[in-house]
UniProtKB/TrEMBL annotation:
Family stated for the protein in its record: Belongs to the MAL family.
Compartment(s) of residence: Membrane
PANTHER family in UniProt: MYELOID-ASSOCIATED DIFFERENTIATION MARKER (PTHR17068:SF3), MYELOID-ASSOCIATED DIFFERENTIATION MARKER MYADM FAMILY MEMBER (PTHR17068)
A Pfam entry, by short name: MARVEL
Keyword Transmembrane helix on entry: yes
Name listed for the protein in its UniProt record: Myeloid-associated differentiation marker
GO cellular component: cell-cell junction; plasma membrane
TM region positions: 38-63, 69-90, 102-125, 137-157, 178-196, 202-226, 238-261, 294-313
Membrane topology: Multi-pass membrane protein
Ranges where the MARVEL domain occurs: 31-163, 168-319
Keyword Ribonucleoprotein in annotation: no
Keyword annotations of the record: Membrane, Repeat, Transmembrane, Transmembrane helix
Length: 322
C-alpha cells in the first residue's frame, strides 16, 4: 500500500475507522465522556491509586522502589496535564506538537508502567513479610498493570491508520523510536557501575554504541515534538533512513562484543553465574553484576531487533519533500 510522508505527517490512499467512534470534543467537559477521555481517566485513576497505596505504608525502598514510585507519580502528573489541555482546548498553546506528544507520551507511559509492574514485585514485594504493607504493595502492582494496559490501549487506538493524517510519532517507525530510547535507558541503568566495562576497550565501545544510538533517536523524537524537522541540514526522511541503518550496524557490533567479553573466560569474562560471589545470596533492592551483564546482553538483542524493524518500515515508506 503506497504511503507518502510530508515532513512529519503521513497520509495513505485508503480509509479506515480509527476505532474511537466519534472524535473527542475538546474545550468542554464532554471530552471526558468520549472513549479516549474515559481511557485517560482510567490511566489517571490507576496511577493515582498505585502511588497512593505505596505512599500510605511507605512501601518503597532503594533504587528500584524509587523508580516505581517515580513512574506512577510521573504518569499521573502528565496524564492530568493532557486532560486539562484537552478540557480547556489549549492544544494550540501547548509548547509541543499535539499531533505527536500524546501518543509519544502514552507509549513511554506504557513502557514505564510495564517496567514498574515487573521490577517492583520482583525486587521488593517478594521480600516483604505478610501484612498490611505487602497487601498494599500487591494492590499497587495490580493497578500498575491496569495502567500499563490502559496506556497500551491508547497507543493502539491513536496510532496511524490508513486514511488518517497524523504525526510521525504515531507511525510504526515513530513508536519504535520510543521503544529504542526506553530500552537504551534501561541499559544505562544496568551499566551504571563502571566496573562492568572499564579498562576493556571492546566493552567501552559497546557503551559508546548505546550512547550514540540513544542520542540520535532522542534527537529524532525531539525534532518531531518541537515541529523542527526542517532545521536539519539534510531532509528529515534521509536522516531517519541513515539513523536506522547506522544504528543497526553499530548494534550488530555490540551484540557480538558485549557477550563475548562478559561471558567468555578467554576474554576475561565470567561464563557462570556461580562465579560471581555477589550473586550467591539473594538481596532485596540489589541486582548482582552477572545478572546486570546478562540483562544488558538481552536488551542489546531487543534493541537490535527494534532497529531492524525500524529500518524495514522506514524503507517501505515513500518520502516526499515539500
Amino acid at each position: 500500500m503506497p504511503v507518502t510522508v510530508t515532513r512529519t505527517t503521513i497520509t495513505t490512499t485508503t480509509s479506515s475507522s480509527s476505532g474511537l467512534g466519534s472524535p473527542t470534543i475538546v474545550g468542554s467537559p464532554r471530552a471526558l465522556t468520549q472513549p479516549l477521555g474515559l481511557l485517560r481517566l482510567l490511566q489517571l485513576l490507576s496511577t493515582c491509586v498505585a502511588f497512593s497505596l505505596v505512599a500510605n505504608v511507605g512501601a518503597w525502598t532503594g533504587a528500584m522502589g524509587d523508580w516505581s514510585m517515580f513512574t506512577w507519580c510521573f504518569c499521573f502528573s502528565v496524564t492530568l496535564i493532557i486532560l486539562i489541555v484537552e478540557l480547556c482546548g489549549l492544544q494550540s498553546r501547548f509548547p509541543l506538537s499535539w499531533r505527536n506528544f500524546p501518543i509519544t507520551y502514552a507509549c513511554y507511559a506504557a513502557l514505564f508502567c510495564l517496567s514498574a509492574s515487573i521490577i517492583y514485585p520482583t525486587t521488593y514485594v517478594q521480600f516483604l513479610s505478610h501484612g498490611r504493607s505487602r497487601d498494599h504493595a500487591i494492590a499497587a502492582t495490580a493497578f500498575s498493570c491496569i495502567a500499563c494496559v490502559a496506556y497500551a490501549t491508547e497507543v493502539a487506538w491513536t496510532r496511524a491508520r490508513p486514511g488518517e493524517i497524523t504525526g510521525y510519532m504515531a507511525t510504526v517507525p515513530g513508536l519504535l523510536k520510543v521503544l529504542e530510547t526506553f530500552v537504551a535507558c534501561i541499559i544505562f541503568a544496568f551499566i551504571s557501575n563502571p566496573s562492568l566495562y572499564q579498562h576493556q576497550p571492546a566493552l567501552e565501545w559497546c557503551v559508546a554504541v548505546y550512547s550514540i544510538c540513544f542520542i540520535l533517536a532522542a534527537v529524532a523524537i525531539l525534532l518531531n515534538l518541537g515541529d523542527c524537522t526542517n532545521m536539519l541540514p539534510i531532509s528529515f526522511p534521509s536522516f531517519l533512513s541513515g539513523l536506522a541503518l547506522l544504528s543497526v550496524l553499530l548494534y550488530a557490533t555490540a551484540i557480538v562484543l558485549w557477550p563475548l567479553y562478559q561471558f567468555s573466560e578467554k576474554h576475561g569474562g565470567q561464563p557462570r553465574r556461580s562465579w560471581d560471589v555477589g550473586c550467591s545470596n539473594r538481596h532485596a533492592y540489589y541486582v548482582c553484576n552477572w545478572d546486570r551483564r546478562l540483562a544488558v546482553a538481552i536488551l542489546t538483542a531487543i534493541n537490535l531487533l527494534a532497529y531492524l524493524a525500524d529500518l524495514v518500515y522506514s524503507a517501505r515508506l515513500v518520502f516526499v519533500r515539500v
